[in-house]
Write a structure and sequence with these properties.
The chain is mainly β. It contains 1 helix and 17 strands.
């Protein structure tokens, strides 16, 4: 009797193992969505940072009337790309960037296909006359700022600099690089007011390690839900 019970137990274990090893019959996701987030001021893809610049929100409405959103990061040059999506109809929205959030667009993604969709957004702040140059042992920075969304509240600006990677920004930067009355000790944010707009602002980076290629950019932000900075392009400076 014990032998029969043991055989039945072993049979159940084998059956369970076989059923758990069955392969599902779903194809891997291979649909692609790609596109650009265009700066309405420059007419070019928006300059941001990676990671932490903006995200793309996807909602598959062909599956559900109340889909659970999926997100992926955009790139520093304002483009985005996702190559592993299931076929279906999606609502697509760029979100959590330093720009006004545009309306969603509806797109169809097909297996093995490439769907392209662009968005135009207005950045909270734009840069002009940006100059970042070597001056002896220092780096001199000057720029002008324009606020594009008038009911936005100005918050601060910063100079980001590092010699470690071209992907300089809020994630990667060196501290203790400023001199001057605004920020004598480190690279903490400098308060930004309406009086600072549309005039030349200047900063000096004076604690610069010589003999290295530095990457420097300016960031400025308004109070917004994502707390992200509008960014200038990156300037490489050989010291």
């Amino acid at each position: 009797m014990k032998n029969i019970q043991s055989l039945l137990f072993i049979f159940c274990i084998i059956a369970a193992s076989l059923s758990s090893c069955k392969l599902d019959n779903y194809d891997e996701p291979d649909g692609t969505i790609t596109g650009r987030v265009i700066d309405s001021v420059t007419g070019e893809p928006i300059v941001t940072e990676q990671p932490d610049g903006f995200r793309i929100k996807l909602e598959e409405i062909s599956w559900s009337d109340a889909p659970r959103p999926e997100y992926f990061w955009g790139k520093a040059d304002g483009t985005f790309n996702n190559i592993r999506l299931f076929s279906g109809t999606y609502k697509v929205t760029p979100v959590e960037g330093a720009f006004d959030t545009p309306g969603a667009k509806e797109v169809n993604i097909t297996s093995g296909g490439v769907t392209t969709v662009d968005f135009t957004v207005t950045p909270y702040i734009s840069f002009s006359d940006v100059s970042i140059v070597k001056s002896g042992d220092n780096i001199e920075v000057s720029f002008k700022l324009t606020k594009n969304i008038q009911d936005a509240t100005l918050q601060d600006y910063r100079i980001f600099a590092t010699y470690k990677t071209p992907f300089v920004g809020t994630v990667i930067f060196e501290s203790a690089i400023y001199s001057g009355d605004n920020n004598p000790k480190n690279s903490n944010p400098i308060k930004l007011t309406e009086a600072d707009l549309n005039k030349t602002l200047t900063e000096t980076l004076d604690k610069i390690t010589p003999g290295k290629l530095w990457y420097v950019r300016v960031g400025a932000r308004c109070s917004n839900s994502s707390s992200r900075y509008n960014m200038s392009k990156v300037f490489p400076i050989q010291m």
